[in-house]
Design a protein that fits this description.
Elements: E1 5-17, E2 20-29, E3 37-43, H1 48-62, E4 68-75, E5 84-90
Antiparallel strand pairs: 1-2, 3-5, 4-5
Length: 121
């Protein structure tokens, strides 16, 4: 990442064009002095519940609320039921450090599921 821009979000597409993934970064001119970093977490077994828990655990262990920029979860490949990618943009730094904890989770994720016949509106 560059120090001349503030990253708002990084989105990745499951669509492959020329065997390359599409990635879009939304940014604004730099307003603060902190550098942004990306952490990627992968799920390869299709277990959304376990994946959500692992994302929540990483956030609660390594990221204070003021250090979180965005979280994006996408399919690794289109129509994949097993491979998912979570991209976390943060200002924690290159080296992961544990944040102080009082035993309570700061971040909580809720998984909302429906059958494949239902259309989201």
């Amino acid at each position: 990442m560059t120090k001349t821009m503030d990253v708002i979000s990084v989105q990745q597409s499951a669509k492959s064009v020329g065997h390359k993934k599409n990635q879009v970064m939304f940014w604004a001119p730099q307003q603060n002095a902190e550098e942004n970093f990306i952490k990627e977490l992968r799920c390869t077994d299709g277990d959304w519940s376990a994946f959500a828990i692992s994302i929540q655990q990483w956030l609660n262990l390594h990221c204070a609320p003021h250090q979180l920029v965005s979280v994006s979860i996408t399919e690794e490949t289109h129509t994949s039921d097993k491979n998912f990618l979570c991209t976390i943009v943060h200002t924690v730094g290159k080296e992961e450090q544990n944040v102080p904890s009082n035993g309570n989770d700061i971040f909580k994720l809720e998984l909302v599921e429906t059958d494949r016949k239902t259309t989201w509106q």
